[in-house]
Specification:
Layout lengths: L2 H9 L5 H13 L5 E2 L3 H8 L3 H14 L2 E7 L5 E7 L13
Antiparallel strand pairs: 1-3, 2-3
Length: 98
């Protein structure tokens, strides 16, 4: 867990309270380098929202530039995502009102 990233995530306005919760959860799972790889279901369970909602919020965070999603393929054809958080220089506000 990166406390520094969590503090930064809490200060950023993303325009939606559930989106902010997903961002904070990603920061909670992230290393000090901003990398994490929780499953959509893990985030959904922790945030008490649907898996589809998590997917939509992560897509919006990627569009805003706060998160980069890298899909990696396993040897057996399965895939998982690595999330890279880019919270430096994000400023105070990126969206509408929370």
């Amino acid at each position: 867990m990166s406390m520094e990233l969590m503090v930064k995530a809490m200060k950023i306005r993303v325009g939606n309270p559930l989106r902010k919760l997903v961002l904070i959860k990603l920061a909670d799972n992230a290393s000090d380098q901003g990398e994490c790889w929780p499953s959509y279901q893990h985030i959904a369970d922790q945030c008490e929202i649907s898996k589809r909602s998590v997917m939509n919020h992560i897509a919006a965070l990627c569009e805003s530039g706060l998160v980069k999603k890298v899909t990696r393929k396993g040897e057996k054809g399965n895939s998982s995502n690595i999330y890279l958080l880019h919270l430096d220089g994000a400023g105070d506000s990126l969206g509408g009102s929370a």
